[in-house]
Each structure stands twice: as structure tokens, then as C-alpha cells.
Amino acid sequence: MKMSVFQIQKILGTAFIVAGIGKFSKIIENPFKTLGIGHAANINSILEPYSNWVMTNDDFIIALVGLTMISTGLVQLLNLKFVILVSLIQLLMLACFVVFLHRAIPMIFMIDGIFVLGILTLIRQKLTEVKGLNI
To answer: For the whole prediction, is pTM greater than 0.70?
Structure first.
């Protein structure tokens, strides 16, 4: 059964809202611990300077990620006109997660890969629906 565009939006929007709220409460994960694990794995790698910056600004990074996840999820859930734009922002954010955490948490490829596939499917269906393109 093929899912409709709005069903995919609702699922992704809800998932991003829940994940964003999880950044502010330690119910789903401890984001400070996750950043620490990622930082430790990036020592002596090309990512170390960036990892040091992230750890120095961990409160800001976690707040930014949490708010971005919640706001982009709301746009998708409410079917606002910026769905494609916020989906691209989500893809960029997920790419940053993978780059930062791939050494420490190899499962990030599977976890975020599922979201990436959902977002790409959503973008494809949105472009087909809105522009009448046959992609």
C-alpha cells in the first residue's frame, strides 16, 4: 500500500517533534552524553576541531537542534507551504549528525538512513504533486 504525501508528512513531522522534545528532556536520550561520546570518538581525527567547538557550545547546539527539529516537524505536521524547504533543512541536519557521530555510533547510518529515505520520498512526492513533474 502506497502512503500518501500527507501520511508521510505526519509520520516525519511527529517523529521530529518527539525527537526535538527529547533533546530537552532526558526521556528519549541524553544529548549531552551523546555529544560526549561523539567528541571522544573524534579525537585525533580530522573532525577534532569541529568536535571541540561542538562540545564547547553544547548547550547552544542541543537547543538549536531541538528547536529546529520541533519547528520543522510542526511545518510538516501542519502541512505548511515550506514543507520542501524544511525537509532539506532536516536532511542537512541529519548529515551533520552522521558526520559527527559515525565513529561512536555506527548504527546512526541505519537510524538516520530511515529518516533520510522518508524525507527523500516526501520531497519526491511533493515535487510530483505540486509541480506535476514525473520523477
So the answer is: yes
